[in-house]
Amino acid sequence: MYRIRFHGRGGQGMKTASRILGTAFFLEGYEVQDAPRYGAERRGAPIFAYVRADSKPINERGIILNPDLVIVADDSLVPVPAAGVMAGITAHTLLLINSNEEESEWRHRLNLECPVLILSLKEEVSERAELPYIGATCTGASARLTGVISNRALEQAIREELSELGTTVIEKNLENALAAYESMADNEGAITEGGLASADSYALPGWIDLPFEDARTSAPAIYAPATSVEVKTGLWRTQRPIIDYDLCKKCWWICGSYCPDGAIEVEESLPIIDYDHCKGCLVCVAQCPSHAIEAIPEAQAQALEAETQEGEQK
Amino acid sequence: MKRTLLTGNAAAAWGARLANVDYIPSFPITPQTEIIESLSEWIDNGEMPGRLVTLESEHSMITAAGSAAATGIRTFSATSSQGLLYGMEMLYTVSGWRAPFVLVNVSRGLSSPITLEPDHNDIFAARDCGFLQIHCASCQEILDSILIAYRLGEDARVRLPVIVNMDGFYLSFTREPVVIPDEESAREFVGNFDPENIHFSASAPESQAVAVLGGGPYSYFRYETHLAAMNGLAAYEEIAEEFGQRFGRSHSAVESYCADDADYLFVMLGSFATKAKEAVDRLRVCGWSIGLVRPRLVRPFPASQLQHLLADRKGIAVIDQNISMGMGGVLHSELATALYGQSGKQPILASFIGALGGRDIAIEEFFEIAEVIKQAASSGVTPPPRLLYTREELREIRKLQAVARAERDELNNNSGHKKGEAQ
């Protein structure tokens, strides 16, 4: 089974891109499932869409967590946790990203082992949601990467899916999609169908018994986002973020770039928090895609530190 | 007949169109709105006859649907989640009118906290209201079930409204290959609505809202509705059989997949059950004797079929996509009721709660559920109910709570600071 995920922003045509690719697979005789996933539907918000295609009826459902191909129409989505761009990317996945950065830059920034292809539009656009024909471009490129979709099927799929939009729009999309299809000629068939999880040896789900917590903790109340408060020193911190290096994927560029105080230093791809200047805002905790940064009350952290130091002195 | 890619919502709209409905009272709600958008577009373009009206709430919408049905015309409507609950008073009311129509519910978790993604607490809130319920697992099944539902609801033995249920997102917004029957054979199958004594004319007023004081008459009307719902069991099987013969697709009251010889079974409702099928396939490759049983008809509850299908098994895992606060999974309770007092050795009946608010169920979790019921069967001890919830998910909620705590602290600090200034 092919498992393909498109990431973009509302308005960039990712739902349409997934439908065109789904229809193209269907025209080539595949069983298909395609679906968009979004929350608050608004222009510019992160959305993604996915396509499954197989030679037999598809029983798998829901978000694809073991993609063969991930297409990113907008590289500014990579560090947005809600976008989920990084979810399930392994060495098997091919990452196709619309960016003016080099392939090596993305591999370096995100500590990736998987192949990366750049889809560079080389166009200066001020409003990312207005990126013209990016959906068609992503579809054309991804169709070629599968190696099983002819340009005729791609063209027919575009004509079917965009039939209500009129000739001019269809022709412009066709032009972009077919150009992208040609641009990927050297990578035809670069993605392969992922394997099946075996019932003989599988990763345990890691279920836990959810503990009771009183309503002060467990009622779903939220507080208005705190306004930025100028804090001069780490002594004001009440919560301390702590990186679990066993879980850290060393995609240092994310936490390092998002720390508003520049309090995360990087040494050889290893993020290190400068607790003298960290104000405990926990932006890094929120941004970390692998949930590797934990927060504990500062007082508790200091008590632990004191114990450790005492232990060392003895 | 045409095989094409359709979302669950589009399949529902096609079902209503092919059933030749006359009247569609509507009110938008995510993730259902696409159904009424499609129907209104077709009506506007003259592609289908009928009248679509937007009401000011689901309460009015259900009232309008019941009222229209009570004049003897074929009526369709659709809602979801909070909308179904907002119309709840009228669900009970109009089912008592014994005027049939079809309502599609696109399942979505209930507030609070609010979500858009699916679970079955909305449809189970309507469990006892007198509407029959058909639960779908694929887009094809949605279209087919709407055709079947009109036959079922309009059957003289039944004459009750029917809800056809699908999961939001997993079906509503998901395209799959769907065979659209041609109009002629669909209409031949559904037939014309014979309203019997249901009618309305301006000079002959009729009241649907009679008051009965004293429990005797009330008990009569209520129990007659129950008996009509129970008649739905036999009626459903006949209609589904006829559907299968005509269209070549089988939709029996209970779907059974690789279950004939299975020692172990998954039992679940709706579209997540297809994920269980995938797990069954992979477990069988590894030598497991396991299958899936999926009730399609939930009201009336096909107890005797389930008793037959679940008898003489070693272990059964019931995966509920709902939770009755203070009790647990509703389907688990209903199966326990159905199995209690049956002769022979009772299987282990283990309860799992999963997929609340669209929380996915990983294939590995199905493998682990199989392992849990196998161990329970060998020890003879039923495991406690298990919420499908992982350490990583708790870590994610701890992250959210940590951020909320930090923001609250910051707000408290700020307001304290301001107080100090004011003094």
TrEMBL record, chain A:
It is an enzyme of class 1 (oxidoreductase). Its EC number is 1.2.7.1. Keywords: Iron, Iron-sulfur, Metal-binding, Oxidoreductase, Pyruvate. Residues 239-268, 269-298 form the 4Fe-4S ferredoxin-type domain. InterPro entries: 4Fe4S_Fe-S-bd, 4Fe4S_Fe_S_CS, Oxidoreductase_gamma_subunit, PorC_KorC, PorD_KorD, Pyrv/ketoisovalerate_OxRed_cat, Pyrv_flavodox_OxRed_cen. One of its GO terms (molecular function) is metal ion binding. Gene3D superfamilies: 3.30.70.20, Pyruvate-ferredoxin oxidoreductase, PFOR, domain III. Pfam families: Fer4 (PF00037), POR (PF01558). This is Pyruvate ferredoxin oxidoreductase, gamma (Delta) subunit. It comes from Solemya velum gill symbiont.
From TrEMBL, chain B:
Gene3D superfamilies: 3.40.50.920, 3.40.50.970. One of its GO terms (molecular function) is pyruvate synthase activity. Signal peptide: none annotated. Keywords: Oxidoreductase, Pyruvate. Its EC number is 1.2.7.1. Residues 15-222 form the Pyruvate flavodoxin/ferredoxin oxidoreductase pyrimidine binding domain. GO terms for biological process: response to oxidative stress. Transmembrane segments: none annotated. It comes from the Bacteria. It is an enzyme of class 1 (oxidoreductase). Residues 262-365 form the Pyruvate:ferredoxin oxidoreductase core domain. This is Pyruvate ferredoxin oxidoreductase, alpha subunit. It comes from Solemya velum gill symbiont.
